[in-house]
Amino acid sequence: MRYFLAIIGGGPAGYTAAEKASKAGKDVVLFEQNALGGTCLNVGCIPTKSLLYGAKQYFNATHAQKYGVTAENVAFDFGAMQKRKTIVVRKLVAGIKQRLNNEHCTVVSGKAVVISHQPSVVSLQCNGETYEAENLMICTGSTNFVPPIPGIKDNPAVWDSTDALAAAELPKSIIIVGGGVIGMEFATLYHELGVPVTVIEAMPTILPNLDPEVVQILLEKYKKANINILTSTKVESLDGGKVTANGEVYEAEKVLVSVGRRANLLGLEALDDIELERGAIKVDEFCKTNLPNVYACGDVTGKIMLAHVASRQAEVAVGRMLKEIPLQRIAYNAIPSVVYTNPEIASVGITEAQAESMSIPVEVKKLPMTFSGRFMAENEGETGLCKMIVDAKNHSVLGVHCIGNPCSEFISAASFAVRNGYTVPEFRQVVFPHPTVSEILHEIL
Ligand code: NAD
């Protein structure tokens, strides 16, 4: 049987593509070597958020005096948190399986390898069987990058994020190398559960891609909470849990290395003429590669390594394959992102610094989150910040950057404005429910 579409990888890109193409009546085969759901569901977004939620419950219970609540003998059971995390993941993975079954998509468990590619026919092998398809979609994701630092390889004290998520017990202390998104989310988890944390970041700031004013608020709060954050600090070598950085030695039971991820190209060796860009598969606006009928979506394209980008890329790519009219496109200028620290950081669109580097004259609007009544009611002692970047010429909203709980839950309203090119007067006409923290987006206009 020749399939319309073969998909390698069952993460958010792969399963979204499979569902959409199957729904359109096409024969689809999807190969997954581990569990459906990919990094996001199994060893990324969902397990971290499950554990972070448990940690937040404990932390809030032990810091509730400011709301007039005193709780005694508050304790947590990390094993129970891990168990709950596993159940959440299992249920979501089963849900994906069910959805693909409902659409009669063929799911093959195993490692697929491309064996040949000609225009209009790709051959793959998996578990000793050969499969042919008219179109190929590569959704193989990414893997943790291991930097070439002496003493890092085969060091039993070193964890990557997958090891940290699987650990049965909390470490007694931890050094986190890399103060990016993964590093700061794990710093939050461990800190809230009482583990001493040191973060070592090579750049002059943690979360270097975010708005510096927003990051500064987090930095000040975390430093006050005794999270040891070292910036402009280069790790030179490791010896067990001893980390030498900028000539000083720091020591912890475990060292979590979170310095980025790299596109996973294993199993694609037969596509030796596929074009790469900075180690990832180069794609056009419809996620087409330079090879006829070969598409790539998600982390393997190295664009923005976020699950929601992967699934949107898959929708656009399948739309192109199906020759939908009109063809959909991805609004890369309006991709929201969230860092699940406490407080959360959420942003969409360009920052002030990016506007400057693109020579776009902008007006920057700023308000502390305390301008929202609901924020005041629920965030004792916090000020937060909301920044809006507005085009100085046509007054359209180009970016929004917030810190304060629960900004992850309303950043989509800002995405909607950026995606649709709303001007300030247009956005002002949107009614926000009162009292919600989302009203900050109205107050700031
Ligand atoms: P990242 O790129 O966000 O951060 C890596 C950090 O490590 C950077 O700040 C970098 O300057 C620093 N670094 C690099 N080499 C270093 C060294 N030798 N010593 C010290 N610091 C060093 O990467 P990540 O945190 O590993 O996350 C990987 C990907 O996963 C990212 O694309 C991220 O967006 C995604 N992710 C997203 C979420 C979310 O959306 N909430 C959560 C986790 C991961």
Describe the structure.
α7 links the parallel β10 and β11. The model has no long low-confidence stretch (mean pLDDT 97). The chain folds into 3 domains: 203 residues, FAD/NAD(P)-binding domain (3-Layer(bba) Sandwich), CATH 3.50.50; 102 residues, FAD/NAD(P)-binding domain (3-Layer(bba) Sandwich), CATH 3.50.50; 110 residues, 2-Layer Sandwich (Enolase-like, domain 1), CATH 3.30.390. The longest helix is centred in the first third of the chain and has 25 residues. Strands 1, 2, 3, 4, 5, 6 and 19 form a 7-stranded mixed sheet that branches. The chain contains 13 helices and 24 strands. The termini are far apart. The chain is α/β, with parallel strands linked by helices and 445 residues long. α1 runs parallel beside α8 and α3 runs antiparallel to α4. Bound molecules: nicotinamide-adenine-dinucleotide. The site of nicotinamide-adenine-dinucleotide has 25 residues, from α6 and β20.
Overall structural class, as computed from helix and strand content, comes to alpha/beta
Count of discrete alpha- or pi-helical segments spanning 4 or more residues: 13
* Mean pLDDT across all amino acids: 97
- Which cofactor or ligand species appear? nicotinamide-adenine-dinucleotide
Rg over C-alpha atoms, rounded to the nearest angstrom: 23 Å
CATH superfamily of the largest domain: FAD/NAD(P)-binding domain
- Regions with pLDDT < 50 over 5+ consecutive residues? none
Termini distance?
58 Å
Please write out the topology.
Layout: E1 2-8, H1 12-23, E2 28-32, H2 38-43, H3 45-62, H4 78-102, E3 106-109, E4 113-118, E5 121-126, E6 129-138, E7 142-144, E8 158-159, H5 161-166, E9 174-177, H6 181-192, E10 197-200, H7 212-224, E11 228-230, E12 235-239, E13 242-245, E14 248-251, E15 254-257, E16 261-263, E17 276-277, E18 280-281, E19 294-296, H8 307-321, E20 337-339, E21 345-349, H9 352-357, E22 362-367, H10 373-378, E23 385-391, E24 397-403, H11 411-419, H12 424-428, H13 440-443
Parallel strand pairs: 1-2, 1-6, 2-3, 6-19, 8-15, 9-10, 9-15, 10-11
Antiparallel strand pairs: 4-5, 5-6, 7-16, 12-13, 13-14, 17-18, 20-21, 21-24, 22-23, 23-24
Helix pairs in contact: 1-8, 3-4, 3-6
